[in-house]
C-alpha cells in the first residue's frame, strides 16, 4: 500500500517524500554458516519519472549481515552498519 | 525483515543524492526505551532529512522524533517493525543531530538517518559550522599516563582557519591543571576555554582551542603545572565555519553532578548570545553509548573504553543549550561546555 504524504509542495526548494511503502520479507535465519537470502518489496506504481526512490532495509539478525543493492539501484557511497544497509536509485 | 521505500520528489536527478548518512544501533543487551537517532551531521541547506527506525515485531514507536513528520502508517515486516519520519531542513540549518524516539519496549533497535540534497538549494544567510574531523574517529585519541610535567600527542590538521578543540581529562589527582598548550601549525589560546572538576568524582576536565595556521601534522605539547601521574584522556576535534576571521569563546559553563547518579547524563548548560557552535565534553562513571537530545550531534571517546560523550550543535540563538546522553548504568558525571564563534 502506497500512501500519499502531506508535506511541502514540490518545487519549493525542498525535496519532499510523496509516498512510502513498507514491505515485509522473510526473516533471514541465523546460522553458523553464511546464509544469503533474496527479499522482495513490491514494485511501486504511479511513480513520477525523475523521482528518487530510497529503500531502507532492516533486519535484526546481527552484526555480520549486509545487504546487496538490487539490480538497477545504486548503493550509498558511504554507510555500512552493524544493523542496517540501504540502497538508492533514481526512477526513470 | 522490513524494507521501506520512499518516493521523493524535488531531489537531484543524477549522481549520489546523499549529503550524509548516519547509523546508530543498540543491541538487546543494552536495551533502552529511548533510542537514539544517528549522530549524523551536515551543513547542507534545504536537505530532506529522513530518519528510519527499526525494531522487533510488535515493537512500536510511542513518541516520534521531535520536529519530524511520520511518513507512513504501515510498520510491520517479518519479525521486525519499521518507522520512517522526514523533515525538510531550512536554509539556515547547519547540523541535524540525532532524532531520538521512544519505543514501546526496551529492545534492540536501530536508526538510519539520510540527508538528501535539494535540486536547487538556497544559500544560508548565517554562519554554518561544520565538523571537519576528529581524532576519536581518526585514531589519534590517546589515553596515557604522562608521569611528567608534559605530554605530547600528534595532530593532523585539515584546513587553515579551522578551529581545533582539544579535550583532556584525568581522575584522582587534585591540584594538577594544564598550564599551556602549544604546537606548530596551530595558534593556541593562552588559557582554557573551560575547566571543570567534580566535587565527588574527582574528575578533572579541560577544553582548549586554537586556530589552524598550516594544514600539516603537528606535535602538540601539553604542559602541566606539576607532574601528572594520572591516566589521561586526550583528543582533538576540528571545525570549519562558513564565515568570519577569528575564533573566540562566546560563553562557557560547567556541571557537577555531586553525589547524584542517573542514566541520563546532562551536559553543562550554556546560554548563547547569538549564533555559534555549542560543544560539550562529559566525563562519566560508565561508558556513554548514545545521545538523547535531538538537534545535537554526538560521538564518544574510545580509548581506554572511556566512552566520554561529546555533543555539538550550531544554528544557535540567544537561549540556553544543554544536551543529554545515556550511560547504561546510573552513575555520576561532570561536564564542561563551550560556545565557540567565528566572527
The most extensive interface between chains reads:
A-B, 55 and 56 residues
Biggest sheet of chain A, strands in spatial order?
Answer: 1-2
How far is it from the N-terminal to the C-terminal residue of chain A, by CA? 21 Å
Strand content of chain A: 25-35%
**What structural class results from the helix and strand content of chain A?**
mainly beta
Helix content of chain B: under 10%
- The helix/strand series of chain A, from N terminus to C terminus, equals EEEE
Identify the quaternary structure here.
heterodimer
Total strand segments of chain B: 29
Provide key terms for this protein.
heterodimer; A: 92 residues; mainly beta; two-stranded antiparallel sheet; two-stranded antiparallel ribbon; globular; B: 343 residues; 5-stranded antiparallel sheet; 29 strands
3D architecture notes:
The complex is a heterodimer of chains A (92) and B (343). Chain A is mainly beta. Helices cover 0% and strands 27% of the residues of chain A. In chain A, the strands form two sheets. In chain A, strands 1-2 form a two-stranded antiparallel sheet. Chain A has a two-stranded antiparallel ribbon with strand order 3-4. The radius of gyration of chain A is 15 Å and the shape is globular. With 343 residues, chain B is mostly beta strands. In chain B, strands 10, 11, 13, 15, 16, 17 and 19 form a seven-stranded antiparallel beta sheet that branches. Chain B has a five-stranded antiparallel beta sheet with strand order 2-9-4-7-6, with no helix packed on it. In chain B, strands 20-29-23-26-25 form a five-stranded antiparallel beta sheet, with no helix packed on it. In chain B, strand 25 (297-300) and strand 26 form a beta hairpin. Chains A and B meet through strand 2, strand 3 and strand 4 of A and strand 1, strand 2, strand 4, strand 7 and strand 9 of B. Strand 3 of chain A pairs antiparallel with strand 1 (2-9) of chain B, so a sheet runs across the interface.
